[in-house]
Design brief:
The chain is of the alpha/beta class. It is built from ten helices and 15 strands.
Amino acid sequence: MSASAVDFFQHISRELTQGRTVALALIIRRHGSGPREPGTMMTLDSDGRVWGTIGGGELELRVMKCARRVLRTGRPERMEFEMKNEDAATAGMMCGGWVEVLVDRLRPDDPHVNAVVAGAAVAIASRQPFVLVLALCGEGLSLQTIWNLVVGGHSVVAKSYFADLSTDWVTPPTTAGLPEYRTSDSGSLYIEWVLPPEVVYIFGAGHIGVELVPLCRRAGFRTVVLDDRIDYAASARLPDAHEVVVLDSFVGCMDRLSIDERSFIVIVTRGHQHDREVLEQALRTGAQYIGMIGSVRKKSAIFSSLAASGFTSAELDQVRCPIGLRIGAETPAEIALCIAAELVAVRRGILPSRRQS
């Protein structure tokens, strides 16, 4: 996605609250290769401001033209784009497949849209998974869209159209996957299971932590920074952090944290002793990822100490140390970049998580 569904709902909520009407472009289907995957979203408001991207190039130009038309007419449109014909070749988008994009107008006075956005806001605030369901009925000028949200098995929009459908999609899965597109005699359904954003816990608010926070946020992670130095763990130094925690000590620092399989732990404290303390606690959690900064010598010393405390080689092998992808990083900004890249690689399944190691 160009931005997560969570980011989308937060963006739409701001737009509607401020009284702005927006055109939403959403990739609902893709066959073969394409610039972006189903679920990718982009918006255009009446002032011409664009949020997100669905792949750039000729595809995005045509979608933008359609979005302006939808803003004017109020009629939703579906458009297909072939990425293997002469037009695509001219545009430099010879991916070989095709995508279908829905463009719809969202108004601040639409009760269904407002109900969906409000329901999503509550679910996001409580870190509760939900299901976005979009019904598409009719074709051409008669095309209609019905937006719905299912939270905790309950539908936000009470429409008979949804009541007649199979409900096997109501419960979100435990892991993220691509949206589904289903067809029936009465129309089509776009279904997207939305999970809370993965959380990155950054232990250490020093130079690397400061550089890492904005990268994690822009990549769609919820970012929490923890340090025992009040001058360092300050929101003014970390404006992109979702949460900044001043610790009394690194001892027992995870006791009150809700660390689960959607959590990433980054250990970049100011010293070996603190790193070891945090790592020992991290190994007892179900975090998807644990990474610790340090040299080969430091790793050997800390791992030997933890092995003497009863941790197995298999458990210690799950820790990524030295942390980050190997790109020859030296400066704090470069190190933060290689850490963020590794987090994304694990999230996308390019690198194994702890459970897969």
